[in-house]
Amino acid sequence: MDFARAGAVVEFRFGSSVVTVPAGSITLLPGEARFTLVLSSFGKGTYDVALRNPDGGAGVLVEAFAVATVSPVPLSVSPDRGYEGSVVRLRVTGSSFVGNSTVLLRRGTATIPGAVVGAGAGFLDADFDLDRAALGAWDVVVANPGAPEAVLPGAFEVFGVLSLDSMTPGD
After folding, report:
1. Residue 139 zone, left/alpha/beta (φ > 0; ψ -120 to 50; rest)
2. pLDDT tens sequence across 52-84
């Protein structure tokens, strides 16, 4: 990096995708260039890294930067219970969720897929249809495409609904 000049930009290239770090965001020090990357700008893949000076000088490091899909990190679920036969909206909080993360409830080999209805920094909201769901504790399972799933063991419980068949006055 000794050849880097004031006004240099850094480019990350993968196929036709280019992410540019503008000159004003780069701090040049002896032997190094410092900058911060926002990884949400990158897709999964291995990138060439180029440093380009305003005078036309450049250097390229081939396949020098790799972005992998990370597993989500669920920390909690709310509410932590629901009733058989109902539809419940769960909020899973945590980190490393992506736009197409999935969430499901799992108990043994049985699964109930969640319909993701909202996502933001640190949360996923999903609706679950608990019609005919087995009573008891269920694992909450969150996955990002191409990455191992993450599990909150026994984090959600399905309860039965009490029903009265008859009632006698005075009871």
Report:
1. beta
2. 999 988 889 999 998 887 888 999 999 999 999
